[in-house]
Structure formats: C-alpha cells, structure tokens
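Progress narrative, work stream C.
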Amino acid sequence: MAAVKMITIDLDGTLLRSDGTVSDHTVAVLQQARKKGVVTAIATGRMYQTARPYGERLQLGDSPLLLFSGGLIETLESKKVLYQKGIPEEDSRPLLALAKEKGWQMQTYIDDVLRVAEDGPWIKDYQRITRCAYDVCGDAFYTPQGACNKILSRGEHDELEKRRDLIEERFPGRFNILFSAPTFLEIMPPGIDKGQGIRRLGELYGIGTESIMALGDSQNDLDMLKAAGLPVAMANASDEVKAAAAYVTASNDDDGVAAAVEKFVL
C-alpha cells in the first residue's frame, strides 16, 4: 500500500457526529497528519457557506474544500477557485419547470447562495441540519440567473426515487443524480462526482490516487471510495459502501475518522 499523502473526508455521517459536532480528539489527530505533510481536505456535497465552519474547526488553514461532490474545488481561507463546473441555465430551466409542474420541492445553489421557491418544512429541516441561510424567491426561482452548482430535491425516499426516474427519462444524460441521504436527492452536472473530484484534487497537488485515503458513509461517497488508493467506510455506512472499502473504521459517533488516520497515517 502506498504511503498516504492526502486524506479526503466526507462531512455528514463521517466526520460529523450525530449532533453535528467534531470531537477535540479528531481535530488533534488530523492536525498531527497535517504536520506530517499530509494534505487534508473536506469532500462534501455541501456548499462553501456550510462547509467552511468545519474546515475552520479542523484548523485546516488554506486547504482545499471539495464542494458540491466535486463540482467546485475552492480553498478555505483565500477562497481561490481551483475548479468549477455547474449546471448551465439551458439544462436547469426545463428541470425546474418540471419541478414546478409536479409540485416538487427543489433548491438551487448559485454563487454560494441557496434559493427556494417557497418556505416550507423541508427547507426548514435543511436549515436546522446545515445552519444555512436561504433566499425565498417565489416564481423567480424557476428562472435561475447563472449556472447552478447543484440542485437538491427533498422528500420522502420513495417519492424521490420516482422523481429521479422521471428526470432521467425526460433528460437522459444531462445530470448525474445520486442520494446523499434517504431524503436528499442530489442533481449535478454530468461527469461530476466525488471520485472525479479527488482525481482532480490529486492532480492539482501532484498526488496520485494510490496515495489518497478517502473516508465516507453514503451513496454519493461510493465513487470517491472506488477512486482512492485506501477507501475507508464508517461503521454506520450502508452495506453497499462497506463493500467498496478496504477497511471499515468505527462509527462517526465513535471518532472513526481519527481511528483510521491513527492506524494508517500516524
């Protein structure tokens, strides 16, 4: 196994405990890894606004953040954009028109601003989880100004599966659609996933994927785990995610990230 030169860490269900916090022990272990010269990067479906506090909590300095599942790579402190690919308006507008017709909850991310058509329980729940501010735009929501980094739909899992199937039927090949949690349907540009994201991140830092340790727990982490030289799943991950890992660490509530870094890096 190649020496680990980069660690990429998912947030929800991986780095973050169930209460949304990160332990002092995990912070200390990741700081030890950084002192050894190991690049440490958050790899998340979240936007900069809601990922930044955790980068600061980990004291990552100007380390890269892999945001929107790889659609944006941006440095933590200087906010330098190293890579970006969004959903163009000619693709997002017909999708949002379909959402309006069907009455689907949707939210867009453009220039680090989260927008919705109307307030409601799903966006309030999202705000509770992520502590993210959002703009209620009314009908203007359905005419996005600029490329969307991501479009997210919230709902019960069975309903979201039907939405996914209809979107793929109506717009074949125009989006990459994955679940990041049972009630989170992530809609991204084609070719964007965390696996491609860590490959690009490795290229930017001159590090091959064989030297990347990736940690995750959900379906949108699968591509990242498959691309990494050392894929690590959390004990709380699904069986599908565990099957893609070379090692299963402790759960997110039991400092599983720290345990894996201590075992393979320190």
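Work stream C, second folded protein:
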Amino acid sequence: MKIGFLGGSFDPVHFGHLIAAQDVLEQFHLDRLLLVPAAQAPLKPNDIQSTVEDRLAMLRSATEWDRRLEISDYELRKGGISYTVDSVRHFRTQFPGDELFWIIGGDQLPLLHKWKEIGALVRLIDFIFLERPKHPTKPHVEIDGLRLHRCDGHLIEISSSELRSRVQAGRSLHYFCPQKVIAYIESRKLYR
C-alpha cells in the first residue's frame, strides 16, 4: 500500500490543509492518507493555542464524511515535542511493508536539514512537497538519500495563524474553513 502522512498543528484545520491532502491523494494514487496533529512542533513552538481535544474535534468535523482521510492521534497521545523521525519510526512498525510518504509544504524544504536525525529519517520514508504561496520552492536540497517528490497542487494562501487573528479581530472564517469547523470554533469561543 501507498500511505501518506500530513502533519501539522491544524489549529484550526482549513481548506488549505484539506485541498493539499486531496491533491496528494489524487496525484500519487495513495491508498490511505493520515492527518497527524502535532502535540508541539519543534520549529514552531508557539503555533498551538487550542487544546488537544479541540483540535481533534475540529479535524474530525472537517473530515468525518471523507473515507479517504484518517486521523492519527499518535503524536498527541505521546505528548511533548513532536519530532517527525519518532513518528515515522512508529508508523514504520505499523506499516512495515508499505510505501510511506511524509507530506510537507515547500516552505519546509530549506529547513529540512534542521530536522532531528534527518539522515535516519530519509532512510525510513519518502517526502512529498507542495509549493506554498509566497514561498517559491528550490527543490534542490543537499541531504544524502533524500527521496523527494513534487506535488503540483492548488496553491491556496491560508494559514492557521492568520485565521486565529481573523477570529481575534471579529472577522469571518467563511470560505476559509469547513462550516462545521467554524461552528465548533464559535461554540467553544476559541481564539478569542
């Protein structure tokens, strides 16, 4: 099987995340795609404002109808800083004979050399990168053994931090997030 993993804070999940997932599913003919919310991202220490429960509930409400997408709460249950190499080792034991892909935004390529145990990580999994608006990608990365695949996706400029700022300013999230996510944010008074 071909299995993809899309990590992130998902605080909140938005159409940029979901369209990226769909683009990768379709272009790489993945059998499964797991969304992997981070407990705490090492290179974005202040990126999470909602509780684990709230982020999981928003992800579930955004994807519950789509059987192609699954949610892994592995990093949330583990807690602490979420290092990709630790998660990939875990997933590699769960899916030992499968072809695994870690999906990243193109803006992460220049930072990839800073990832924990990147040499070990690239031996465990292939990477798929998507370009992000305002972050032109230079796919030439000097990491021995890196297997890097480009996904030509729909470039949508949305960030979770921008959406949190919109809520704080009293502005609408309509057309940025699924309606169920917006309703959840409003009901829980998140990001205020």
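The mean pLDDT is 92. No further action is required on this item.
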